[in-house]
């Protein structure tokens, strides 16, 4: 009898088996392999309803010296890890990393080819609904309409996605990741997460601190601000509005220093940008893009700039676009401006997945009327971008899903191996100050500072940073304390 009791106790202490988490890998073109995994919808009921995860693997280029698997997440939340590994990984990761690891991407629960959040019956309905929303609302009339529209979006998502909306937390994605780690036969996790992927990585490290081989966090999303319960919208609590505002000033100062190499450098670029935006706030400006005039609103240009500031390779062309916008306002129209960044209809589930995951992690506030005030206050502290970032989270005020298994900390557990953090000083989305704070809070962690701009390794050209990341992932060597790397390319150089 004692023997049977002992067996039951031992069985209860063992981790949930993961051997069947992934199906057999099969060829899916271009030397890549694909698979699917079944994981519990609700980890409180591990034998209950299962959902599907889509995976892709880029096999190690040097199989004889393969270390293991490198799992990756490209951010969002809501971005496809399958698409990232297929299309972008060879250009983002160094040859040394690609040689030594099977690089594995997966679409997290709710995303893309995995069991997805669905809010519409098809792309036409989706495009019509989402295409009718402004980049963010400006003025009381737009604010009321936006709040009503996002409440309706939540109702549509609940009707089509059901109880999936209650199980989309980052913590559950980390539990999925641990299942996938075990399924590929790795005793400990090697991982690199970009942007939101850093939140997934630090959550994994604190849920499974003894299973960390190497976790690199690139472009830090502040986990403390994300997960705290507060009346301040989470999209402001993480500090991105200040980061974008600082990046704008760096962009304009760099433009002035570049002189004729930057098309917007004449006069005082800071004052000229303020003048252009003040005119846009009074009403849209029609730009001749070559096929006739197209109206651009204040919110359109703010959101275009918010995205472009995180991608320095587009700075030179964006400066030209701003110059064309200025010339149009001054009556000297030119037939090209902002065309490359003009809004396009959304035809995948990235928007719905972003909201499903982010809102599942949040417990409040639940009063949408707080957002206009929060946006105005944020714009006072971070001009232009405070409101833009504030409204990102407004749908969560009426969102019908919430995951009671979300993780809210602590984020300071000692791990079996220290974490590496990477952040550009003028990252337009990831606050450098918050990255430093997280590095100081994580036992043994190190922060690599990139002296320049750009959001994550995907947008930053730095051989020094690539080499440091490779040393960490391959050899588990952290950068030196207070290490820095330079950017290799001037965004306003003639060759950029």
Question: In summary, what is this structure?
Answer:
This protein has helices spanning 2-13, 81-87, 89-92, 95-100, 123-131, 140-161, 170-183, 196-207, 223-227, 234-237, 240-258, 269-281, 298-308, 315-329, 350-360, 370-381, 385-392, 432-441, 463-475; strands spanning 26-27, 33-40, 50-58, 68-73, 101-107, 189-194, 212-218, 285-288, 293-296, 420-426, 446-453, 484-486.
What are the main properties of this structure?
single chain; 496 residues; alpha/beta; Rossmann fold; 2 domains; 10-stranded mixed beta sheet; two-stranded antiparallel sheet; 19 helices; 42% helix; 14% strand; disordered N terminus
How would you describe this structure to a colleague?
This protein has 496 residues and is α/β, with parallel strands linked by helices. The protein has two domains: 26-115 and 168-226 and 407-486, Alpha/Beta hydrolase fold, catalytic domain (Rossmann fold), CATH 3.40.50; 118-163 and 236-362 and 364-401, no CATH class. The chain contains 19 helices and twelve strands. The protein has helices at residues 2-13, 81-87, 89-92, 95-100, 123-131, 140-161, 170-183, 196-207, 223-227, 234-237, 240-258, 269-281, 298-308, 315-329, 350-360, 370-381, 385-392, 432-441, 463-475, and strands at 26-27, 33-40, 50-58, 68-73, 101-107, 189-194, 212-218, 285-288, 293-296, 420-426, 446-453, 484-486. The strands form two sheets. A ten-stranded mixed sheet has the order 1-2-3-5-4-6-7-10-11-12, with helices on both faces. A two-stranded antiparallel sheet has the order 8-9. Helix 11 (240-258) runs antiparallel to helix 17 (385-392), helix 12 crosses helix 14 (315-329) and helix 16 (370-381) runs antiparallel to helix 17 (385-392). Residues 1-19 and 339-347 have low confidence and may be disordered.
